Description:
The chain is an alpha/beta fold. It has helices spanning 5-8, 31-42, 54-66, 81-94, 118-146, 167-187, 211-215, 226-237; strands at 22-26, 46-51, 70-75, 100-103, 149-154, 192-199, 248-251.
Amino acid sequence: MSETRDSTAEKPACFADLQGRVALITGGGTGIGRGIAIRAAAEGMKVAICGRRADPLEETADLVRAAGGEALTQVADVTEEAQVEALLQSVAKQHGPIDALVHNAMVVRTYPIPKLTLDRWEAAFATACRGGYLLARGVLPEMQARGRGGLVFISSVGAARAHRPGMPYDAAKAAQEAMVRGLAVEYAEYGVRVNGVAPGAIQTRPPRSTDARRSEYIPVRRIGTPAEVAAIVAFLLSDQSSYLTGHTIYVDGGLTAQLTPPGVWV
Length: 266
């Protein structure tokens, strides 16, 4: 089945209540993070993006500004406490209090167990969980005081189904989903909602000849787009999802719903 034109198009703005709110997106320089930044700007949000490399961040910012949005960029390593504090202060100074945090940054490297060193194991958890904690700790007090706010953690289908190889990545994402539940139940009474989005196969690089084969394993028979992930993030940040907290939504074309790929019976 071929990919339809609509599946690759940018999704239109839908949530008027997001207009003027401030969104911080980690890992916003490329791929899914870039898609989320563009969608947030389309919704009228003031966008701040961070990452470890300046050039991709500026490319994303240019796309946001070209569409008429506001964008702030800052190079930051979210595993470093001092850098997270400086990032949050910079965003607050230039854009105002943060209304929405989207933690998308992640170390995407996979190793078979014999090559899985302790440093490689800890790198996955440092970005997904330590970084997520430092960011949440920084934004939650202000959100609690104002009685509103939204956090979205970008997980992965690997939290529910094992990549082969990929244990540190998958384990860190599963831990991150536990963080979503824990933060959600602690801060629900203060008007702060915390949710997750778990993408499946998403086209974050130029198409390759192997993409058609990958699509055969996905029930909808195609790879998803950053815009499709960003649409769910926008919904979760909006007031339209006001009774939804503590959940992770899987955006995977049905991948985790199936027991086996087509033609295989066990």
